[in-house]
Design brief:
- With 373 residues, the chain is an alpha+beta fold.
- The protein folds into two domains: 111 residues; 239 residues, Phosphatase 2c, domain 1 (4-Layer Sandwich).
- 48% of the residues lie in helices and 17% in strands.
- The chain has eleven helices and eleven strands.
- The protein has a six-stranded antiparallel sheet with strand order 1-2-11-10-7-8. Strands 3-4-5-6-9 form a five-stranded antiparallel sheet, with helices on one face.
- Helix 2 runs parallel beside helix 4.
- The radius of gyration is 29 Å and the shape is elongated.
Length: 373
């Protein structure tokens, strides 16, 4: 808001500059172009009344300066007054056109936001002792949602999670995301273990690809990380299907990459061959946080082409923030990660980023990690 208020003074500054230029230059040098530019500059910055006010002020100032210089005649005076009036009217039309465009963009963003909440709702903030938060950073700022996904679900077999990335970007991938989420929500409640869950997901995605046909059937796939927490939260079991490995952040703020013991292709490619879905188990002690993300994070490059490394970067940036702000919530950890990736890239990421933080609280500590208490 302060920045907007400062920019609204630009038309006034042009008028003041025109007065200064007119007073310090010979009489045959006119400052009319600066006065004419003032209402044009006001068009995207001010309201209609302010634009008209700038135009009228510019006309009054021009008439005064022309009288002082003795140049107020048809050629140098009245013609400029007519030009100022016409430019002011044009500035009002420009303002209305820009406002209509802004309104359309705002409505489109509202529709996209509704679609995002419908297709990709925020996970529950807490399931037992597991505190959860998520972030979605689209590569297309207008879209708000694209081809990345996350879902957290409490099931009879424990809390189950999926973070995935469907083939494609932007709104064109939303239908595939919806199909993946629907398949997971059904299979997560029915499958007794992770291999069964993955098998049911594969079948569902193949059926969906068959219904769509064409490129979606031949090349549609989803990289996915599927996690299952034991009932006591002491263990997290992972199946990684072509997805970036998650990072375990311990209570001291140290990071560990939870890599898969065997490589496996993305989901939706079982018609090309049969692959096992190895399940890797890792301890998940109290005070730890599991950070899951899509390749929009790990494949972000800096100006030299170097990939972002969350294992190396997170202890540094989280350590600095912890020293200044104390314990961090899962949401604050994700926000810190988003800002650090942007610093690494030097701007907005070129790929969608979905992030999920799952923190196991410690007894007697509602404030969350990292660092010693």
């Amino acid at each position: 808001m302060p920045q907007l208020l400062r920019t609204q003074w630009i038309p006034v500054g042009l008028i003041v500059l025109a007065v200064v230029v007119d007073l310090i230059t010979p009489q045959d040098v006119t400052s009319a172009p600066l006065l004419i530019a003032a209402p044009v500059a006001a068009a995207p910055l001010c309201g209609i009344r302010a634009i008209i006010g700038v135009g009228v002020t510019a006309m009054v100032v021009h008439a005064f300066l022309a009288r002082v210089d003795g140049t107020f005649g048809w050629r140098a005076g009245v013609a400029n007054q007519i030009t100022l009036a016409a430019v002011t009217a044009l500035a009002v039309l420009i303002h209305r056109t820009l406002r209509r465009g802004d309104d359309r963009a705002r409505r489109a963003q509202q529709v996209a936001a509704v679609a995002q909440r419908a297709v990709l709702p925020r996970p529950p903030s807490r399931l037992g002792d597991l505190h959860i938060d998520a972030r979605y950073v689209p590569a297309e700022s207008e879209a708000l949602i694209g081809g990345d996904l996350y879902v957290v679900q409490s099931t009879p077999y424990g809390i189950r999670v999926m973070v995935g990335d469907v083939r494609g970007k932007g709104l064109g991938a939303v239908s595939a995301v919806s199909a993946d989420l629907g398949a997971f929500r059904y299979a997560a409640d029915e499958a007794e273990d992770l291999p069964q869950l993955v098998t049911r997901l594969e079948r569902a995605l193949l059926r969906e690809g068959g219904r769509r046909g064409g490129e979606q059937q031949e090349e549609g796939f989803t990289t996915a990380l599927i996690a299952e927490f034991s009932m006591d939260l002491e263990t997290v079991r992972l199946v990684n299907r072509g997805h970036p490995a998650p990072v375990l952040l311990d209570v001291q703020g140290r990071t560990t990459l939870l890599e898969a013991s065997e490589e496996a292709p993305p989901l939706g490619m079982s018609d090309l061959g049969a692959w096992a879905s190895p399940v890797d188990s890792f301890p998940f002690p109290a005070g730890s946080t599991l950070l899951c993300f899509t390749d929009g994070v790990t494949e972000s490059r800096d100006a030299t082409g170097r990939f972002y490394d969350p294992v190396a970067r997170l202890p540094l940036v989280l350590g600095r923030r912890t020293r200044s702000a104390g314990r961090l919530t899962p949401g604050q950890i994700l926000d810190t990660l988003i800002l650090d990736v942007r610093r690494h890239v030097g701007g907005r990421p070129k790929d969608d980023q979905a992030m999920l933080a799952l923190h196991r609280s410690r007894a007697g500590h509602e404030g969350l990690l990292p660092g010693k208490s």
